[in-house]
Amino acid sequence: MGYQFDFGKVLQGEYLELILEGLQATMVVFVFSWIIGLVLAVVLTVIRAIEFKPTQFLVAAFVEYHRNVPMLIQLFVWYFGFAVVLPDAVNDYLNDIGAEIGYAIVALALNKAAYMSEDFRSGLRSIHPAQMEAARSIGLTYLGAMTWVILPQAWRLALPALLGQTLILFKGTSLAAAIGVAELSYQARYIEEQSFRIFEAYGIATAIYMLISFAIMWLSSILSKRYELRVK
Amino acid sequence: MLEIIQEYWLLLLIGEYPHGKLGGLAMTLIISFVSLIVTFPCAVLIALARTGKPGIIQSIANGFVHSVRAIPLLMLIFWAYFAVPMIIGFPIDAAFTLIVAIVIYQTAYLGEIIAAGITGLPKGQREAAAALGLGYIPTMFRIILPQAIFNVIPGIVNQLTTIIKESSLGSIIAVSELSYVMLQVNSNEVTKPLQIFGILAAVYFVLCFALSQATNWLERRISSRRTGQVVVEAVA
Question: A7-226 maps to which CATH number?
Answer without folding.
Answer: 1.10.3720.10
